[in-house]
Structure formats: structure tokens, C-alpha cells
Specification:
The complex is a heterodimer. Helix content of chain A is 30%, strand content 27%. By secondary structure, chain A is α/β, with parallel strands linked by helices. Chain A has two domains: 224 residues, FAD/NAD(P)-binding domain (3-Layer(bba) Sandwich), CATH 3.50.50.60; 127 residues, FAD/NAD(P)-binding domain (3-Layer(bba) Sandwich), CATH 3.50.50. Chain A starts with a strand and ends with a helix. Chain B contains four helices and nine strands, in the order ααβαββαββββββ. Classes of the chains: A alpha/beta, B mainly beta.
């Protein structure tokens, strides 16, 4: 059985930052990543990020990924990276089982940081399985990673930051975005993103949603409609639009299945996107030395995932006897950054959600 | 309405424009009306002319005495929510706007001028296009806009 002090599950912004900070403290780790390369969702984000300089604000997501990956590669003697590897089992005695190239591998560890991120929510409507109907993440992967257009005439469902940003990226790629549908009576994301779209001629239709998709072998048309204040379709408000792609961006859900498997105490918190683990102020779950970082304990921005990664890397290292020379200063700084990122009106739901899972 | 269609109202727009005496020189207009956690405009300004402070959720405030209209904040704003405006004379205003679409305009061309609702309102002259490495793929376009559209113009669209 392979032995390593720290296993980090997920090579996105939270996992990479955790590995870096653990290594800086003197603790070696193994990063396990399901995808073929590390960087997480950042590798398809072509827009500039918000936040402050400490979280690489104004840098494009793709470039933040490069920074975080390079940071980790600098510690190649301390950080081992396994890509194309899926965690299939997580046990209370801190045995992690992996599947790589059809091979089953067992790893015994002292601490685990779970940084698996989140997955996109789906939306139920008639014929929602027609080819041409994508999640926003899939559109970004196709378009921004592989250079393939998802379609030529697209409607976006959802006006959160992801829906607004991906609509803008579609326009940058030369795709016609007919409109953005938002079930709520107000735009969900930052208004600067909404204004950016509106000035390019894209209507954001609040109190509207998709009713059904139409097409034989692939998406050909959609029926949209206006919603009343109970989110029911108003009869006679239907409108038919000719599209060859539909992009669904109705929120994210924490990928917390592994936590349920190892048996940490969990709670369903809608403010955080779904089922999340109970944590203490250092992101330690109810099982000692099992930590979480990033969207898996509440969906928010990559900026906070990075800081949570740094924080857990720092704390786990100390618990295992590797104390960073600047521990106190860094600890307070990471805490202050998280507080700052969450203290505005957009952080309100998140703050309430996090209160619910504090142990 | 900003919250329902992304278009700020006149009152919001005017609240970000300085007194007439300042605008005879180029000044930054920050159209960031919400409290969101973001501060690159403030930290990138070489003249300390944009204030946000410790709490990065604070909306930016421009000190028009200090602002030189250099345009550095324009391409550093992740929300593309800042532009530079100057009242040139009785006929024209000069804008510097961020632009991230291709094709880029070319100096001397005439393009459509567009308002915040996405409607074409006038014709504008492209005076200068800059895209240096430090701008990181956000071009800065200098355009001449008829003065009557100084509070309405926001971006450009397709060569005429």
C-alpha cells in the first residue's frame, strides 16, 4: 500500500493552493485529479476575475490556472500529482482507493483535504435531453478549451454570474445569443456583467423560463414563457424561438459524495447549493484530519476557493507537525481575505449558509 | 432598470459623472453601482485617484482632482465598467472605452455608437486603438462622439 502524509482530492484552485501551502510548511502531499490535467474549471475561464490582488483579481482564469499549476510544479519533490485518476473509496482509517488506467491503487494517509468542487444543476422541461442542450460548463469546455462552437443561435437559461459570463464569451466567439432567460424577477449575477451584455444588444428576460424543447434528432426550436410570481407559466405568454443550442446555467451543487462515503456529518443547506459537511473554523469536518476546501463546502467564487485551499493546507500541515515559519501572520491574513470576500451584499446568503454548518 | 435588464437609469449615470469643470479634461467614469468584492481599479491607478479602501465590497469613488484620464483602470476593470470621457469642444466628446471583440476597429474608421440599452444612436470616429501586452487582451478604443450623446454613448458596433 502506498503511504503519504496528505492526500488532496481535486486539482482545482482549492486543491492546488492547499498543496502549495502544505509544501511551503514542509508537508508533502499527493494530488488526485480525475481530469487529464490540473487547474480545475479555471482552465476554461477566459474572463478577468473579481476580488483583490491577493486572489489574482483582474487576471484571466486561464492565467490564474497557470500561476497555481506553476506554484505546485515548483515543489515537484514534495507534491505528487496523479491525473486521470478517480477516487473510488474513502475510509475512516484514512485509506483512499483510486482507479487509474484500470488499475486499483490503495493509499494510506494521515490527513485528507477534499476539494472536489461542484457540479451543475439540471433543469426539468420537456425534451431536455435533445442534443444541442448543454450545461454552461460544457459550452465553456467545447468553446474555450477545444475551440468548438456549441451552435450558432443560442439561448441562455439563468442570469447568475456564470450565465452572464458565458453569454458574453459566446458573443466573443461569434455566436448569436438571442436572449438570457431568468426565472426570478431580478437578474441574479453582478449587474456589470448584465450591462456588458445589454450594450451588445442581448435582452435579459426576467420572469421567463424555458417551457419545452422541440426537435427530432437535435434541438431545433424552443418554447419560452413568462412566469407569474409563483414561478408558474402564464398562459398565452409562450413564444417560439429558433435555436440550435440551449445553454443551462441554473446553479451549482457541491460534489460532496465522497464526504458521505467517509461518514462525515452532513447537512442540506440550500444557501450553499446542497448537501455539505459540517465544519469548524478551519474547515475540518466531523472526522479528525479530514478537511474540505472550495465549492464542496458551499458554492462560491474561485477566489475564495483559492484562499480556503491556502488556509486548509496551512492548518493541516501544522496538525501533522509542520509549522509554516509565518503561520500566525498567514492564518490571520487568509481569514481576513475570506471575511472580506464574503462581507458584501452578494455574500449574505453564503454567510447565513456557513453559519448553519459551523460545528 | 439595472436590476431587471442591466440598464442603469439617468440618475445613476449622472451620479458617476463629475462636475462640468472637470470633464474638460479626460476623467474616469466608474459605472459600478453594486457593492461587489472587487478592487483592481483602485489598486491599478498610478495616481491613487480611485478609492475603495479596506473593504473591497465598497463601490469605487473617483477623486476627479487626481484622475488624469490615463485609462489604466479601464482595461484593469474585470467588469468592463469604466470608461474615460472628455468634453473636447462644443461639438465632440472623446471617449476611451474597453473592447474585447474581434475584429478590432482601425483608426480612421466610422463605427456605430451604441447606448446602454444596446441601441445604435449615432456615428462615431475611431481615433486610436491600443492593445499592448499589459492590457492583457482588453483593447482601449479612443472614439470621437457627438457631444449630445455624452451621457448616452457606451460602446461601438460594426464598421459603417
Amino acid at each position: 500500500m502506498k503511504k503519504i502524509d496528505l492526500v488532496i482530492i481535486g486539482g482545482g484552485p482549492a486543491g492546488l493552493s492547499a498543496a502549495k501551502m502544505a509544501a511551503e510548511s514542509g508537508l508533502s502531499s499527493l494530488i488526485i485529479e480525475r481530469n487529464f490535467k490540473i487547474g480545475g474549471q479555471l482552465v476554461k475561464q477566459t474572463h478577468m476575475f473579481f476580488g483583490s490582488e491577493k486572489q489574482y483579481a483582474k487576471t484571466r482564469g486561464i492565467d490564474i490556472a497557470k500561476i497555481l499549476v506553476n506554484d505546485v510544479l515548483k515543489y515537484s519533490d514534495m507534491i505528487e500529482i496523479m491525473t486521470g485518476t478517480t477516487v473510488v473509496g474513502l475510509y475512516k482509517d484514512k485509506v483512499v482507493t483510486l482507479l487509474k488506467d484500470e488499475k486499483y491503487i490503495k493509499v494510506k494517509t494521515k490527513a485528507i483535504i477534499i476539494a472536489t468542487g461542484a457540479s451543475e444543476k439540471v433543469l426539468a422541461f420537456e425534451k431536455n435531453d435533445l442534443p444541442g442542450i448543454y450545461g454552461a460548463g460544457a459550452v465553456q469546455t467545447l468553446m474555450n478549451v477545444h475551440g468548438v462552437l456549441p451552435g450558432h443561435n443560442v439561448v441562455m437559461v439563468g442570469s447568475g454570474n456564470i450565465g452572464l459570463i458565458v453569454s458574453y464569451q459566446l458573443i466573443q466567439a461569434g455566436v448569436n445569443v438571442l436572449c438570457v432567460l431568468e426565472a426570478s424577477s431580478e437578474i441574479g449575477g453582478y449587474k456589470v456583467h448584465a450591462s456588458k451584455l445589454k450594450r451588445l444588444g442581448v435582452d435579459i428576460k426576467t420572469s421567463h423560463s424555458i417551457k419545452k424543447a422541440i426537435g427530432k434528432d437535435y434541438l431545433e426550436r424552443i418554447i419560452i414563457g413568462k412566469l407569474d410570481d409563483k414561478w408558474e407559466f402564464i398562459e398565452g405568454s409562450e413564444e417560439e424561438l429558433i435555436v440550435d443550442a440551449l445553454c443551462i446555467s441554473v446553479g451549482l451543487s457541491p460534489l460532496s459524495n465522497l464526504l458521505s462515503m467517509i461518514g462525515t456529518e452532513m447537512k442540506y443547506v440550500s444557501y450553499l447549493g446542497g448537501l455539505v459537511p459540517l465544519i469548524d473554523e478551519n474547515y475540518e469536518t466531523s472526522i479528525e484530519n479530514v478537511f474540505v476546501a472550495g465549492d464542496v463546502c458551499g458554492v462560491e467564487e474561485a477566489s475564495s476557493a483559492i484562499v480556503e485551499g491556502y488556509l486548509t493546507g496551512l492548518v493541516v500541515a501544522k496538525k501533522l507537525g509542520y509549522i509554516h515559519p509565518n503561520y500566525d501572520k498567514l492564518y490571520l491574513d487568509f481569514k481576513a481575505q475570506l471575511h472580506n470576500l464574503r462581507s458584501g451584499p452578494f455574500g449574505e446568503k453564503l454567510r447565513r449558509g456557513l453559519e448553519e454548518i459551523m460545528r | 432598470m439595472l436590476n431587471t435588464n442591466g440598464v442603469p437609469d439617468k440618475k445613476q449615470i449622472f451620479s458617476r459623472f463629475p462636475d462640468k469643470k472637470y470633464i474638460l479634461k479626460p476623467k474616469a467614469i466608474t459605472e459600478c453601482y453594486e457593492e461587489i468584492p472587487c478592487n483592481p481599479c483602485s489598486t491599478s491607478c498610478p495616481f491613487d485617484a480611485i478609492y475603495i479602501g479596506e473593504d473591497i465590497n465598497t463601490a469605487p469613488i473617483v477623486d476627479f482632482e487626481k484622475c488624469t484620464g490615463c485609462g489604466i483602470c479601464v482595461y484593469n476593470c474585470p467588469g468592463l465598467a469604466i470608461f474615460i470621457v472628455q468634453e473636447l469642444d462644443n461639438e465632440n466628446a472623446r471617449f476611451k472605452i474597453p473592447y474585447e471583440l474581434i475584429p478590432l476597429p482601425i483608426k480612421g474608421e466610422t463605427w456605430s455608437g451604441v447606448n446602454r440599452a444596446g441601441e445604435v444612436i449615432t456615428k462615431v470616429l475611431i481615433e486610436k486603438v491600443s492593445l499592448t501586452e499589459k492590457q492583457d487582451k482588453t483593447a482601449l478604443i479612443q472614439v470621437l462622439v457627438p457631444i449630445e450623446f455624452i451621457n448616452d454613448f457606451i460602446t461601438i458596433r460594426s464598421k459603417l
